Amino acid sequence: MVSRRNFLKFIAAAAGALGFASLSRRFRSVIAQTELPPNAKEALYYVPGGKETADCLRCHTSPEPSRTLYCHIPHKGNYVKCQLCPKGCLISEGRRGDCRVRENRGGKLYTMVYGNPCAVHNDPIEKKPFYHFLPGTMALSLATAGCNLHCLYCQNWSISQVPPEQTENYELSPEEIVMVAEKLGSSSIAFTYTEPTIFYEYMSDIARLARPKGIRCIVISAGYINPEPLRQLCKIVDAIKIDFKGFSEEFYRKVCFGTLKPVLNTMKIIREEGVHLEIVNLVVPTLNDSEEQIRGLCRWIVENLGPDVPTHFSRFFPQYKLTHLPPTPVSTLEMAREIAVEEGIKFAYVGNVPGHKWDNTYCPRCGKAIITRMGFNVVEYHLKGGKCEYCGESIPGVWV
User: Fold this and answer.
1) Cβ–Cβ contacts within 10 Å for residue 25, how many?
2) Structural domains in the chain plus CATH codes
3) How far apart are CA 226 and CA 220, in angstroms?
4) In terms of Cα–Cα distance, which of 176, 168, 226 is closest to 197?
5) Rounded to 5°, angle at Cα 183 from 179 and 189
6) CA contacts within 13 A on the Cβ side of 35
7) Cα 228 versus chain centre, distance
8) Which of 267, 313, 357, 360 is the most exposed place for a label (fewest CB within 10 A)?
């Protein structure tokens, strides 16, 4: 996340160095108001309800309290049903869905974060992490407030678990975002930090403008999105990294307040649509670090996505509501990588452990290091035309 001060320094430095002082933007905090804010835009993927009182069980397959907390009962007046993500929020007049950013006004659903990012920064693409997509390049990275999951260990909880009225936001239109990326020489624009699904309209408009300029767009997501909006998104973005939580329905429900099956389906669709996919599994001690879960995930990846999908096992550090847990032992991550290799995954990584040997990319044929990293920096690069410089093996990915 970027602070207001650092963001203004970032824009000022870019403007001074690249001669576009007009891009220095005014800052404002969004405040609650009765009128629609100027940045509000009608949302995609919703259906109107009606004026009668709604029955929750018409829309929810299960009456479990944990799955219907986002309902505003009783549903009276011009309620709407959001169809963007699997939660399918049924939203009463003047209320918002579980993500805190999509609001029903007069029987229409509006996104309240369009053109209002709360975090903007120029990051190495390895920070996302993407290891097989334009390594060594920079990605203009942005997020708005809100998220449709509520992971107990979220590292960006101060912006993901609040509405936009509680974050410091910047007025940046899609056109301006693309212009900044151009001027900074960013190879891509990354939708990251929170959950890009919830600012779908903003992300889509940026992506459509970026592609004709030769700027790639990448999505860092938990994958909790419905198939139709996902397939449309896949037509306009170039790479998606899925933050996979754990190969357990219980983990998704209790730790992330979601469900497992939609995320598995998301990854299948991404592969079907031919979009570059990478997977990160944050390994949390005592919660999703069992050999059974890790082996189950790796086996599922090979059987459903193929052995070439880069798979990262990342180290957990105590965050948010899981500060009582210790950091993940490096040995656990090494075990996870070993299991991945045993199950047939060709490119398995140990993440959040700078300098670790398994943070590098190795040729699956000759075994030599073809990309060596130190932190977020690429220090050696031995690929030519997407092939191993030593033995000529083709390495799946999108290369510089």
Assistant:
1) 16
2) 41-111 (no CATH), 119-347 (3.20.20.70), 360-400 (no CATH)
3) 16
4) 226
5) 60
6) 3
7) 18
8) 357
Own/partner pairs, 59-65, CB within 8 angstroms, 24+ separation: 59/88, 59/90, 60/88
Cα separation of the two ends of the chain: 27
Q: Tens of pLDDT along 249-299?
A: 999 999 999 999 999 999 999 999 999 999 999 999 999 999 999 999 999
Nearest to 117 by CA among 42, 188, 25: 25
Count of other CB atoms within 10 angstroms of residue 57: 10
- Candidates 263, 278, 260, 356; CA nearest to 315 is 356
CA 237 to chain centre: 13
Q: Reduce the secondary structure of the chain to three states and give it as a string.
A: CCCHHHHHHHHHHHHHHHCCHHHCCCEEECCCCCCCCCCCEECCCEEECCCCCECHHHCCCCCCHHHHCCCCCCECCCCEEECCCCCCCEECCCCECCCCCEEEECCEEEECCCCCCCEEEEEEHHHCCCCCECCCCEEEEEECCCCCCCCCCCCCHHHHCCCHHHCEEECCCHHHHHHHHHHHCCCEEEECCCCHHHHHHHHHHHHHHHHHHCCEEEEEECCCCCHHHHHHHHCCCCEEEEEECCCCHHHHHHHHCCCCHHHHHHHHHHHHCCCEEEEEEEECCCCCCCHHHHHHHHHHHHHHCCCCCCEEEEECCCCCCCCCCCCCCHHHHHHHHHHHHHCCCCCEEEECCCCCHHHCEECCCCCCEEEEEECCEEEEECEECCEECCCCCECCCECC
Q: Which of 9-23, 222-236, 314-328, 351-365 has the lowest average pLDDT? A: 9-23
Q: How far apart are CA 251 and CA 287, in angstroms?
A: 7
Residue 5 confidence (pLDDT) above 80: no
CA dihedral (4, 189, 317, 154) positive or negative: positive
Pair 282, 245: CB distance under 8 Å: yes
Bridge partner list, 120: 142
Rounded to 10 deg, the angle between the 261-272 and 291-304 helix axes is: 30
Give CA angle at 395 (312, 308), nearest 5°: 45
- Residues counted in the chain: 400
pLDDT average, residue stretch 149-156: 97
The residue whose two tokens read 């004709």 is: 212
